[in-house]
Amino acid sequence: MDTKRTTFNNRLLPYLLLAPQLAITLVFFIWPAAQAVKSSFEREDPFGFSTVFVGLTHYRQLFADPNYLDALWRTAVFAVSVTALSMLLGLAFAAAVDRLARSAKIYTTLLVWPYAVAPVVAGVLWWFLFNTSTGLLPFFLERLGIRWDHDLNGTHAMILIIIAAAWKQISYNFLFFLAGLQSVPQSLIEAAAIDGSGPVRRFFTISLPLLSPTTFFLFIINVNYTMFDTFPIVDATTGGGPAQATTTLVYKVYQDGYVGLNIGSSSAQSVLLMLIVMLLTFVQFRFVERRVQY
Amino acid sequence: MFKKLSMAALAVALSATSSLAATEVTWWHAMGGELGKKLEEIAQKFNESQSDYKVVPVYKGSYPETLTAAIAAFRAGQQPAIVQVFEVGTGTMMAAKGAVYPVYKLMADEGEPFDTKTFLSPVTGYYSDTKGNILSLPFNSSTPIMYYNKDVFKKAGLDPEVAPKTWKEVEEFSRKIVSSGAAKCGLTSAWITWVQTENLSALHDKPFGTLQNGFGGVKSEFTFNGPLQAKHWANLKKWQDEGLFKYGGPVGGDQAATMFYSQECAITMNSSAGRAGVINNAKTFTPGFAPLPYYDDEIKEPKNSIIGGATLWVLNGKEKATYKGVAKFFSYLSKPEVQADWHQFTGYLPITNAAYDLGQKQGYYAKNPGSDIAIKQITRGTPSENSKGVRFGNFTQVRTIVDEEFQALLANKKDAKQALDSAVQRGNALLREFEAANSN
To answer: Which CATH superfamily is domain B20-142+308-361 in?
Structure first.
């Protein structure tokens, strides 16, 4: 590492410069996180009149609760599906736009639009499209012999939130993939072309391997996105139903803590979520730092 | 610069004097849309009727959101004086003794007249403690009734003036409606939990839980997996498979109203407060109103239906002057003309006998046929332990569970008995949690 070192003459100055950021981190991250850890070990009535230390009871109950384990598994399925779908489509669009000469800018702008749509609005849009009695898509699906019913069919509901969540994320992946593709050295591609390899082969043997750091970065970002930022989509489309078929971990935290006022268990769930995210971040830093060689 | 500063100082001084003149009473509520506008009108009229107190209504979203917001605010010492809490949250509020200023006590402390007997007995029965003291002021109470489409009935060759009385008739009529092509589906229902489970149990005098449906304390257990409930859920499933019944969705079942308005379904069951919506939306057909159906082989005379809606709770930790204002406002709210106006506009029940009498004197019920079905249904017969209502802790979550199990039934994952057994078992786990949290 040959980064430039900045030296300060005043020893206090660097701390002072860091202070605002540290203060924000402390107030908005560390303090609430510490509160969550504390209340995950306590049982409390909603109003907070009586608080009893219960140790690991909430955690033990969670791991004995089939509903929680189901939610864990469901979240994994959801995260992987959304990530795969949005990354594949993002990559496909990026590869397509990369080959365009003049209209690339227009397509880029259009493809980035969904990212500006608030998640809850995205959820409502897809909810309308898939609405069982008035929606457009169920109407066409019925002609294909599929009776769409996400109000009762758990698989349909899951497909609905996967599509809605992935749709929003395609833009983000597209942008990163496009930037990655554009930074692939032209000379390599030209050399391969002279050697007689076609565009498809060039894409798979040159561009794709060179994109691997981007791919890895996006993979982590997307998994994080689906696990934490998809709450509005679930809330606006399925509300976690039917029969918990779309209750992901983060939605369960909301259901139990906010709606059910069970603060202890809800805190324990957020602590577990926090651990998962820490693990993911750790993995990301380990591997992205060492990153894939090329 | 100086000019600006002095202006600011003046503004501060002015606002200070105006707040000295009238004590503010904050009122958090969950009434959106038309209901919210009406509620604000009531507060405004009270403010205009006197100059000492100013009631400030604040819309806080849905019922669960309002309750959660109030609890969070209480923990932070920023609570409103009055909060509107739905009947499902009653168990939670009653357990929170330190947070609540009981209404009967408040009215006595402030010397405002407050007589429990002036209220309708099912309303007071539900919202008072074991000693008969009213803890929160009944404001908007409702009970489910049946709505049907008279035009579709006519098309199907049925008498539009005769609503189905029993579930057997509901089935027969629905079959006729669907097979004649008068409508795509016979019936739908809002609130599967409240209407098709809680009220079903009450109507047939079957317990929903032990210890008088939870009125007797936090040690109660659910028992709504009996033969009657299982039979009814199995019927709904059977009717769904036949195309007679269509599911309206979880919680309030928003789709039920949509399907009824669009004439897809000929019958729906919903809160009596849905009446205004039905009248506004039924532009192309004539709606009919009727009491909820029952199984005549289970009970000869169905019991009264039970209450839904919300009451106003007073929270502790405010100034004495504020409570004086709250008491004055509550007296105003209980006036027959205020009550009757609210009841007739919204479809909620008249809370006091005087408001009902006033409506009769005004000829409101004669002019609006069907508008007194809810009140007749909730006051019929003598309430039994099973028809007094249900009162359980963590009940918001329990309702979610019941919805989930009903969905599992409709999705062929479980049969009716299995779904109800599982709902009872999961619900009981939540009751034990509530018991533990409220007994330390």
So the answer is: Periplasmic binding protein-like II (3.40.190.10)
Number of domains in chain A: 1
Reference B399, options B94, B121, B134, B91; nearest CA is: B91
Q: Residue A242, preceding bond cis, omega within 30 degrees?
A: yes
The answer to whether B264 contacts A49, with C-beta atoms less than 8 Å apart, is no
CATH of domain B144-305+387-437: 3.40.190.10
Which residue, among B125, B145, B126, has the nearest Cα to B376 in the 3D structure?
A: B145
Angle at CA of residue B115, ends B112 and B118, nearest 5°:
130
The question of ipTM being above 0.85 is answered as no
Q: Which residues of A touch B251 (CB under 8 A)?
A: 239
CB A178 within 8 A of CB A253: no
pLDDT at residue A78, as a whole number: 93
Strand order in the sheet with B287-290: B245-247, B185-189, B265-271, B144-149, B287-290
Instruction: Name the amino acid, one letter, at B90.
Output: T
Angle, alpha carbons A188-A191-A197 (nearest 5°): 105
Phi and psi of B305, rounded to 5°?
Answer: -80, 170
Using the structure block, give the residue that is written with the tokens 């009776």: A147
Complete edge-to-edge strand list for the sheet that includes strand B308-314: B53-59, B23-29, B82-86, B308-314, B137-142
How many whole angstroms separate alpha carbon B407 and alpha carbon B250?
A: 8
Domain boundaries, chain B: 20-142+308-361, 144-305+387-437
3-state secondary structure of A232: helix
pLDDT tens profile B78-113: 999 999 999 888 888 888 888 999 999 999 999 999
Structure tokens at A274: 């926090």
Can you give the pTM of this predicted structure?
Answer: 0.82
Domain at A238, CATH number: 1.10.3720.10
Residue A30 lies in a domain: no
Q: Do B404 and A45 touch (CB under 8 A)?
A: no
Name every chain B residue with its beta carbon within 8 A of the beta carbon of A262. Answer: 394, 397, 433
Contact between chains at A153 and B411 (C-beta distance less than 8 A):
yes
3-state secondary structure of B277: helix
CA–CA distance, B251 with B62 (Å, rounded to integer): 12
* CA–CA min distance A56, chain B (Å): 15
Q: Is the dihedral of CA B259, B260, B264, B265 positive or negative?
A: positive
Range of the domain at A190: 56-290
